Amino acid sequence: MPYVTLPGSIELYWEAYGPRLDEQDPSGPATAWAEPQSPSTSTSTSYRSIELHPDGSLDLRTDIPTLIVLAPIWLDLSYCRSLFDRFAPQYQIFALENRSHGRSTRGPVMPSFDFFVSAADVAFAMEALSVPPSHVFCSGALAFQVGLKLCLLFPNQVLSLAIVGAGQLFAPPDHVEIFEELDQYWFFPVDEGDYYETLEALSEMFLSDYNNREDSASIELKDRIVNTFIRRYNPYRLPSALEVTRPNHRHPCLGTEDLSVVKQPVMLLHGGLDKCYPADTVRGEVPTWLQSSKEVDWHVIEGAPHLLALTHPELVNDYWAKFLARHSVLDSTRIPLDRDYALHVLAGLARHTNGEIAPEDILRRSGDDPHDFSLVTPLEVDLTRAQIVKFSQYGAEVCRLQFPGRYTADPWDVSVRTKKGRRSSQEEWTISRRHVLDDRIQAPRKPMNSQGISVSVLADRFETPASPLLPIRIREHLSSPLPGKNLSGRSSTQIP
């Protein structure tokens, strides 16, 4: 599998695709790029995998624009196949899985990790593989934060930014308490039923009413997403779960004035039924404060959830194709990372840490490690380091729950996975059929160890004999009408 190794022994998985070598080259930089063909006329046979040169750089052509695709929030690049099929016959694509997503990270979970570090990961990966300035595609709130901060820190690497499912810019999420409480039920379930009920709630946060639809496509998507969550972020892998959730609960360390430096054209699509970040909330922040951009192409997709790139792939691809046709600048010149500029930007943003990080301390950093671009405060680092240790202990020493679906094969696995000396009989297990398929034997649980693993108010939840229902306010949040549910106006697109 292809990995790019970053400082700190961090290894990120990547894929790269582009037009077949027998395709005739365009006429050069002045070429007017047409919209990519629809999937009906464009298939995986019309593009190739791009390999590495002996010197470790990607074998990229200099006459074709390059796209960067970040894995969807908490998922992996296998969910991007329709996007690859649509765009790889005409564009070059460099796709990357962020830390603790998919096949990344083969390395330690670091307490100083935040979205600025993740943005630096992308920039460092581009430099390591000699990827030129690119058009960046982000699906979901995490990738949105990474893409935007890549524009801020390393603007020379970004030609345009496509955001499909955004988050909040200037404060932690409005419903951060609900997010955190849901995480605790997810990380520390009392029993298996507690765990699966929480996964149902998480699925509804991402898929909205698509979570409960009964058509085969919606059921298959929900099953696939939930199984990914079970494999990647179950209680036996809590440090990875912490790495993908904790940064989203923090202050983004941005103010309205900080976005004036974003000059790249931006496409922003957001679901009208988004239960993570209502469309009205996003409308009041992102397009409003990106007015320095060359273009802000903003659309609310009526009836769509947060993961609209997965529920509405053809529509999203159509929007991006038109956007790229307007802004498909060809710049094949490899530009070295301007680390000094990025550190100066970061030093200016340090004012959002309430004095806990001094700008002069940031300017003394070397910029040779992605973590040099962190805005996590020393106190947060200490607290998170302790959490990582306790979370690791919980999975190794405390949790004895059995999770069907935990050992289902990843889509890239060639053979049936074997765990603990047994062949996985749960290969076809899905959340939609769990009551039919569950044949697990309840394993005895050990009591809490002497170190008393706990987080917040959950210390006494480990002793609870029965599974409580999810808190009422979580259920109310999932069932309440959203401010953006009945949006109207010229920026909206109605989906039947």
How does this structure look, described?
The structure is a single chain. By secondary structure, this protein is α/β, with parallel strands linked by helices. The chain has one domain: 3-Layer(aba) Sandwich (Rossmann fold). The strands form 2 sheets. Strands 1, 2, 3, 4, 5, 6, 7, 8, 9 and 12 form a 10-stranded mixed beta sheet that branches. Strands 10-11 form a two-stranded antiparallel sheet. Helix 5 packs across helix 6. The relative contact order is 0.14.
Q: Using DSSP, what is the number of strands?
A: 12
Termini separation comes to: 40 Å
Find the structural class using helix and strand composition: alpha/beta
What multimeric state do the chains show? single chain
Summarize the structure.
The chain has about 500 residues and is of the alpha/beta class. It contains 15 helices and twelve strands. Strand 4, helix 1 (about 80-85) and strand 5 form a beta-alpha-beta unit.
What distinguishing features does this structure have?
disordered C terminus, Rossmann fold, 496 residues, alpha/beta, 10-stranded mixed β-sheet, two-stranded antiparallel ribbon
Topology:
Layout: E1 3-6, E2 10-19, E3 47-49, E4 66-70, H1 81-87, E5 92-96, H2 115-128, E6 134-139, H3 141-153, E7 158-164, H4 176-187, H5 192-207, H6 216-233, H7 238-249, E8 266-271, H8 279-283, E9 296-301, H9 308-311, H10 313-327, H11 339-349, H12 359-363, H13 378-398, E10 418-419, E11 422-423, H14 434-437, H15 472-479, E12 492-493
Parallel strand pairs: 4-5, 4-6, 6-7, 7-8, 8-9, 9-12
Antiparallel strand pairs: 1-2, 2-3, 2-5, 10-11
Helix pairs in contact: 1-10, 2-3, 4-5, 4-7, 5-6
